[in-house]
Amino acid sequence: MSENRYAHPEYLVETAWVAEHLNDPSIRLVESNEDPLLYETGHIPGAVKVDWFTTLQHPLRRDFIDQSEFEALCSQLGISNDTTVVFYGDKHNWFACYAFWLFAYYGHVHLKIMNGGRAKWVAEGRPLTKDIPSYPPTQYRAKSPDASIRAFRDEVFRHMEQKLPLIDVRSPQEYSGELLHMPGYPQEGAQRGGHIPGAVNIPWAQAVNPENSTFKSPDELRTLFQNHGITPDKEIIAYCRIGERSSLTWFVLKYLLGYPKVKNYDGSWTEWGNLVNAPIEK
After folding, report:
1. Tens of pLDDT along 113-165?
2. Which residue among the candidates 240, 252, 253, 257 is catalytic per the annotation?
3. Is 240 an annotated catalytic residue?
4. Which of 33, 98, 181, 235 sits CB 3.0–4.6 Å from 89 for a disulfide?
């Protein structure tokens, strides 16, 4: 692999590429934001909305929609098994990466992230619309969940006990236990603050360029993680508060740097910080 090239560049597309493919029927644009009302204010023409909470979360269990519900969602959005799904959104694409990760979890093959997300598209003066698209339904068939990219708490315990790499991608204040949620948000969701013992703190947004929300160069990303001992020969688990920020870190490690064994722990701090008898460091 070239030192200045991403390991799997086919999973990342630029805004210009998206603009050229707005009328391509084999492509479905998906907007997924932290702000649930942003899509309605204007979105890329043809893009459908996938809300991280109301669309992707199971209404009763602390879990995602199940396989049959995921199939129904894709069918309703006009996504077939051979559709190329391109995700983008606000806040440096963090929830776009979360939706991407769930689609990967259910085995969708053709997935991409639009580099720079909404912010870059808008900054370039590209078109937005308030028209809500409608597509003919499909007969989507998902694969069984891919256990190789999702970590559950028992595995995190084993990882911790074996001193394998854990990445806490939250803010330094959350990592230290000073805050329970990101700065500027309500401090709720966990009984205790701190981090999983042995986890290193690599805040998720360090992987993107703040001025335009694009991902940093391969060399910059490699240096960022390897300086913390996160190397491609190891089994890695990333976590945050609910798994959305860590899905961006997972995307960076797996697709941009080519790390073969990376999992996202979506239970993250809302689970670990509430677990009876779970060890915590501050």
Report:
1. 999 999 999 999 999 999 999 999 999 999 999 999 999 999 999 999 999 99
2. 240
3. yes
4. 33
